[in-house]
Amino acid sequence: MVKCRVCGESVVEFVDFGRQPLSDAFRVPGDTRPEFFFRLAVGVCESCAMVQLMEEVPRDRMFHEEYPYRSSGSARMREHFTATALRLLERECRRDDPFVVEIGCNDGVMLRTVKEKGVRHLGVDPSGGVAETARELGVDVLTAFFEEETARRVRAEHGPADVIFSANTICHIPYLDSVLRGVDALLAPGGVFLFEDPYLGDILAKNSFDQIYDEHFYFFSAHSVRAAAERFGFELVDVERLPVHGGEVRYSLARRGERVATPAVAALLAEEEREEILSLARLRLFAERVHQVRADLIGTLRGLREEGKRVVAYGATAKSATVTNYCGITPELVSFVCDTTPEKQGRLSPGAHLPVRPGEAFSEPYPDYALLFAWNHAEEIMAKETGFREAGGRWITYVPEVTIV
Ligand code: DWN
Ligand code: SAH
Ligand code: ZN
C-alpha cells in the first residue's frame, strides 16, 4: 500500500502510464548507458485528498548540473514573471530593506526584475546550470534543494524573508512537510508564502494528462493545499487562477491568524465540490479519457504516415515524454522535434529517442503536419509561425482531444 506523502494515510491509484523515463533527460546520441525508468502512476489520498505520484524518483536524478529547462525560453512566461515580480514588490515589500526568497528560481526569470529594482533577494535552486544563468544576470542564487535545513541556513545568513515565492516547483517536491517547516522558519512575522502550480481542476477539465511526469509529484487543489497548510500551522488565505501553462492556481499561505482569507478561497473550494474533482469516479473518468486520446493520437499519426505525410513535433517539453512514451510515438511517426533550447538540441528525447533540432529546422522545409508538444504556449508559437499555415501546414494538438487545425 502506498502512503500519502503529506498525511500518511492510503493513496488510491486511478491512472497508470507504465514505464517512463526521466522527462528532462535528453540523451547524447551514441550514449549506450541504460536509461532510468520508473512506473508513472497517480493516486488520490483517501484522507487529505492530495493527488500524487505512486512512485517517487530520487531528486538528484532529476535536478542537477545539466537540468536543461530554461524558464526564459517563452516570451509570454517572461512577461508573466516580470508582472509577478512587480506585484510582489508592490504588495509584500513595504518594510525597509525587504528580502525576497524564491524556491526554484531557475534562470532568474522572476528574480531579475527584483534585482533590477535593487531589492535584496535570494533564489534557491539545486540545478547548477540554470543557477549559473541566473547569476550572469546578477541574481543571487544558492545552489541547493530547499528544505527545512536550507531555510534555517538562509535565515541565519540573511534574516527573515518578507515573501517567499515559488512557481512550478512546490509540486515537484515530495517532502512538503520539510518545505513547510522551512517556510515557517524563514518567513518574517506577517509574511506570506505564494506558490503557483498546475491546477488539478484544469488538468481534469482539459484532459491534459501530459502534466503528469516524474518532476510533477503533486497535483494540487484548494482542498488538498488547505489540508496540508493546516497541518503545519498555516492558513490558505488566497487563491488566484492563472492562465499560464494550461491553467494554474497561485496559492497564498500565511501563518494561522495572521491574515484574513479572501472570498476567492471559499469560492474555489465550493467549485471543487460542485465539479467533484476529488471524487474517485471523476478521476477514473479522466483515466478513461486519457486512454481514448492515446488511441486517437496514435491512429492519426499512423494514418498520416500511410498517406506519406511528413510530421514533426514542436517543443521538446518535459510533458512530451509522457505523450511519446505512453502513446508509442517513434521517429518513424514523428521525424524530429524542434526546440529553441540549446541544451536540448542535438540530443534525443528521453525514452522515445526523437532527435531534437533547433527552431530553424521547422521551416527547412516546413512539414505537412506539426504535433504541438508545447500546447501551453500555442498562442505565442502560432503567432510566430504564421508562415507554416500559409504554406499549407496543419497543427495537431491532443489537449483536450486530438484535433487538426
Ligand atoms: O514544471 C515545469 C515547467 C515549468 O517547465 C518543469 N518541470 C519542466 C518544464 O516543463 P515543460 O518542458 O513541459 O515546459 P514548457 O514551458 O511547456 O516547455 C516549452 C519547450 O518548448 C521548451 O523546451 C522551449 C520550447 N519552445 C520552443 O522551442 N519555441 C517554447 C516556445 C515558446 C517556442 O516558441
Ligand atoms: N520557477 C521556474 C522554474 C520551474 S522548473 C518557472 O516557473 O519556470 C522547476 C525548478 O525547480 C528547476 O529549476 C529545479 O532545479 C527546481 N527545483 C527542484 N526541486 C527543488 C527544490 N527542492 N528546491 C528548490 N528548487 C527545486
Ligand atoms: Zn493524505
Task: Tell me about this structure.
With 405 residues, the protein is an alpha/beta fold. The protein folds into 2 domains: 71-257, Vaccinia Virus protein VP39 (Rossmann fold); 282-404, Rossmann fold (3-Layer(aba) Sandwich), CATH 3.40.50. Helices cover 34% and strands 22% of the residues. The protein contains 13 helices and 17 strands. The protein has helices spanning 59-62, 75-92, 111-116, 128-136, 148-158, 176-186, 200-206, 222-231, 263-275, 280-306, 319-327, 378-384, 386-390, and strands spanning 11-21, 37-45, 51-53, 99-103, 120-124, 141-142, 161-167, 187-198, 218-219, 234-242, 248-255, 311-314, 337-338, 356-357, 369-372, 394-397, 403-404. A 7-stranded mixed β-sheet has the order 6-5-4-7-8-11-10. The protein has a 6-stranded mixed β-sheet with strand order 14-13-12-15-16-17. Strands 1-2-3-9 form a 4-stranded antiparallel β-sheet, with helices on one face. The radius of gyration is 21 Å and the shape is globular. Bound molecules: ligand DWN, S-adenosyl-L-homocysteine (SAH) and zinc ion. Zinc ion (ZN) is lined by residues 4, 6-7, 9, 45, 47-48, 50. S-adenosyl-L-homocysteine binds at residues 63, 67, 69, 71, 103-104, 106, 109, 124-127, 130, 145-146, 167-169, 172-173.
Topology:
Elements: E1 11-21, E2 37-45, E3 51-53, H1 59-62, H2 75-92, E4 99-103, H3 111-116, E5 120-124, H4 128-136, E6 141-142, H5 148-158, E7 161-167, H6 176-186, E8 187-198, H7 200-206, E9 218-219, H8 222-231, E10 234-242, E11 248-255, H9 263-275, H10 280-306, E12 311-314, H11 319-327, E13 337-338, E14 356-357, E15 369-372, H12 378-384, H13 386-390, E16 394-397, E17 403-404
Parallel strand pairs: 4-5, 4-7, 5-6, 7-8, 12-13, 12-15, 13-14, 15-16
Antiparallel strand pairs: 1-2, 2-3, 3-9, 8-11, 10-11, 16-17
Helix pairs in contact: 5-6
The structure holds ligand DWN, S-adenosyl-L-homocysteine and zinc ion (ZN).
